[in-house]
Structure formats: structure tokens, C-alpha cells
């Protein structure tokens, strides 16, 4: 059976870094599903439309070209917040679901990271990880990351941003952020990216070993 690894968690928990490392290690394609929601938000903003225009958001999700996810603006801080707003619209989620499932059905297997991979997109994934870290540590990471890219924002503003996004993502009705019952939780507050990768690889090996 092709190995599918589903990775979920809140902003700056380290899920993207981990997903990339696991994908490299196992030779699997990787999809950062947050980029899809960011691209829907960017399409609305580029067209001069409101992020609260649900019909336009649904159309943008339908029309999204997943091959065009390399716009550097997608990684900006404001786009995470904008993505969180459009991602609460059920039609947007439905419009992106099929494409994500097709990606996950690659005969080679796949690694996907996001908020609802283990619960909605790939409920049958062989390995499910739920990555967490304290909100202070996540804000420190984002602060460092943004400073490295020349985006200036205070630590306090980033922390407030992260806590507001956690509340919105976990509180929405459509596919809220929550851990799948059969996921393994990995708290990376005290782990750097190397240590988190080692732990995760151990979990993957144990899960696969026990399934055989
Ligand atoms: O990297 P970071 O965790 O800051 O954000 P992201 O993964 O790019 O996701 C941006 C926003 O998209 C999140 O706050 C979620 O609201 C939404 N999202 C989602 O609803 N479902 C996913 N599978 C991935 C992202
Ligand atoms: O994808 P997500 O938003 O969950 O987080 P990320 O983009 O993987 O990580 C956010 C930042 O924290 C990056 O700059 C990573 O290098 C860093 N990081 C870390 O300091 N310690 C970890 N265990 C994982 C990531």
C-alpha cells in the first residue's frame, strides 16, 4: 500500500518543515495545503474583491490552478490571516477537496500538511501526525522567520495573530482544526527541526511496523 502521511497542526507548529523532511526521506511528493487557501485569498485580493464575498471565494477555489503556487506573496504574514477567513467557507473547502484527494492518491504515496488532512482529506492515511507547540514558541519561530525575510512585525502582534488564527481555525463549523482520533500528537515546543524529524520518523516506522 502506498505510504500516505497526513500532518496537521496550528500555525508555525513546524508541520511544513517536518512534512518536507519526511517527503524527502521517503521519496514522496509533498503538498502544503495551506498554499491552496492562501491562493484563493490572493485571487480575491488581486481581483479587488472582499474576503467576505463567499460566492467569489467559492468560484476562486473552483478556478484555482494548483500548478501556480509559487507566488512569493502567498507566504506573506497577511495572507495567512486572509486564508483563514476564506477557509471557513464550506464551498471553498469543497472546491479544493477533490484536488487534494487526487494528489494523495498518487501511486507513489504522498505527504500532505494542513489542518484537516487526517480528519477530512485523507481519513484513511496510514500515518497521521498532529504537531503542536506552545503559542509563545510558535510566535518566536514566526517572528524569526519573518525577520529573516525582512518583514517587520512585533512579537506581540505575531502572538496575537497566531492566537486569533488558532481560535478561528478550531472554532469554525467546516472542517475545524482538531486531532484525528487515530493521530499521534507530537509537541515540538522543546524540539528543533532535526529532533522533531527524528521523533516523527520513529512514529512512522513504528506505525508501519505494527501494520504488517
Ligand atoms: O503556515 P501556517 O500554518 O501559518 O498557515 P497555512 O498552513 O498556510 O494555512 C493558512 C490558513 O489556511 C490556516 O490558518 C487555515 O485557516 C487554512 N487551512 C485550512 O483551513 N485547511 C488546511 N488544510 C490548510 C490551511
Ligand atoms: O508549517 P508551519 O506553519 O506549521 O511551520 P513551519 O513553516 O514548518 O515552521 C515555522 C518556523 O519554525 C520555520 O522557520 C522553521 O524553520 C521553524 N521551526 C523550528 O524552529 N523548530 C521546529 N521544530 C520546526 C520549525
Automatic annotation (TrEMBL):
SUPFAM superfamilies named among the record's database cross-references: P-loop containing nucleoside triphosphate hydrolases (SSF52540)
Catalysed reactions, as listed in the record: CMP + ATP = CDP + ADP; dCMP + ATP = dCDP + ADP
Segments forming domain Cytidylate kinase: 5-198
Origin: domain of life: Bacteria
Keywords: ATP-binding, Cytoplasm, Kinase, Nucleotide-binding, Transferase
Major localisation: cytoplasm
CDD domains named among the record's database cross-references: CMPK
Gene Ontology MF terms: ATP binding; CMP kinase activity; dCMP kinase activity
Listed Pfam families: Cytidylate_kin
UniProt-recorded name of the protein: Cytidylate kinase
Organism: Methylobacterium phyllostachyos
Gene: cmk
Amino acid at each position: 500500500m502506498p505510504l500516505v502521511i497526513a500532518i496537521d497542526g496550528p500555525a508555525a507548529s513546524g508541520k511544513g518543515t517536518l512534512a518536507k523532511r519526511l517527503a524527502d526521506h521517503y521519496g514522496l511528493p509533498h503538498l502544503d495545503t495551506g498554499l491552496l487557501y492562501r491562493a484563493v485569498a490572493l485571487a480575491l485580493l488581486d481581483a479587488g474583491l472582499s474576503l467576505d464575498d463567499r460566492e467569489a471565494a467559492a468560484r476562486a477555489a473552483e478556478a484555482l490552478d494548483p500548478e501556480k503556487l509559487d507566488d512569493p506573496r502567498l507566504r506573506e504574514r497577511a495572507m495567512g490571516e486572509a486564508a483563514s477567513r476564506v477557509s471557513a467557507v464550506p464551498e471553498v473547502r469543497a472546491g479544493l477537496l477533490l484536488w487534494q484527494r487526487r494528489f494523495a492518491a498518487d501511486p507513489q504515496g504522498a505527504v500532505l500538511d494542513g489542518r484537516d488532512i487526517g480528519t477530512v482529506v485523507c481519513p484513511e492515511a496510514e500515518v497521521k501526525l498532529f504537531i503542536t507547540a506552545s503559542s509563545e514558541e510558535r510566535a518566536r519561530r514566526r517572528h524569526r522567520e519573518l525577520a529573516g525575510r525582512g518583514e517587520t512585525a512585533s512579537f506581540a502582534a505575531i502572538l496575537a495573530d497566531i492566537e486569533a488564527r488558532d481560535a478561528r481555525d478550531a472554532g469554525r463549523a467546516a472542517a475545524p482544526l482538531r486531532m484525528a482520533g487515530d493521530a499521534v500528537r507530537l509537541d515540538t515546543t522543546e524540539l528543533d527541526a532535526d529532533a522533531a524529524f527524528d521523533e516523527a520518523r520513529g512514529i512512522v516506522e513504528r506505525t508501519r511496523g505494527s501494520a504488517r
